[in-house]
Amino acid sequence: MFALLLLTAFVADAESKLTLKPGWKATTDIKSEHATQAAATDEKRTFAVSSTTVAMYDRATGKLLATSTGDAVHLNSAFLMDGKVYCAHSNYPKKPETSEIRVYDPATNKLTVFHEFKEPAGSLVWNVHDGKNWWCCFAHYGADAAKTVLIRFADGFKEEQRWTFPKAVVDDWDKMSASGGIWDGDSLLVSHHHYKVLYRLKVPKDGKELELVEALTCPFPGQGIAADPKTGGLVGIDRGAKKIVFAMK
Q: 181: Cβ–Cβ under 8 A, 6 or more apart, which residues?
């Protein structure tokens, strides 16, 4: 984690090498010392995720309401479903890799293991559910960044299919990986580790590589993003500024 923070500071002014179309702009923010990995929100509560903690805030006032209990090493992403926050969790950068989905329950403030991947395809960095399937992204870094994969799981976390990422996107990762992702209609919006860019990707009808549709501007310097059900926009973080950031097109 320390190495990642150093990298983020070093490339704070770096930018995507792709041609970016207009995307999302910041509208408001909430200060949070926990805003270092991801954010999620509903109409009344907003959640910030650090490597070890999920913090819950009153959306209207920005007041800290609670922080999670339960051990964690490297949380990533935040997917809100049925009032609970599902976070990717790994032992990155340790080897061999372990990966889990951990769930935070605001009713108890407990962070617990939802699912453990017995033989993960890398370090789990984000997970989303489309109403039928879990979609999980397992990252690799450095010279192995192209091995990062998105896997669709059926009930019981039975793997159905996996896809790699387009070369243009992998080359733009700056030896890191896809730190966040959500469904946006019939395509995916995938964030960078430290660039202010969102990649719109399509899952092909045939083939094993995701398709790059466009690259879009955003106010989030990488990390986990989520949909904002109240505005139809997005929520993410600015790790350097320790802020939860809301955005609209």
A: 77, 126, 128, 135, 137, 150, 188, 189, 190, 191, 225
Please check whether residue 2 lies inside any domain of the structure: no
Cross-strand partners of 64: 57
Q: Which neighbouring-strand residues pair with 22?
A: none
pTM of the model: 0.94
Domain count, the chain: 1
- For residue 233, CA distances in Å to 77, 112, 126, 145, 187 come to 17, 29, 19, 29, 15
Between residues 97 and 9, the one the model is more confident about: 97
Q: Residue 219 and residue 240: Cα distance in Å, rounded?
A: 12
The answer to the question of residue 12 being in a domain is no
Q: What DSSP string describes 62-90?
A: --EEEE-BS--SEEEEEEEETTEEEEEEE
- Percent of the chain at pLDDT > 90 equals 94
Q: Does any domain span residue 84?
A: yes
Structure tokens at 50: 């650090």
Contact assessment for residue 80 and residue 42, using Cβ atoms and an 8 Å cutoff: yes
Distance CA 233, CA 244 (A): 14
Q: Mind listing the pLDDT tens digit for each residue in 212-232?
A: 999 999 999 999 999 999 999
Q: Is residue 37 within 8 Å of residue 220, measured between CB atoms?
A: no
Residue 181 contacts residue 191 (beta carbons within 8 Å): yes
In a domain, 64, yes or no: yes
10 three-class SS: helix
Range of the domain at 230: 17-248
What's the pLDDT at 9?
44
CA distance 143 to 241: 29
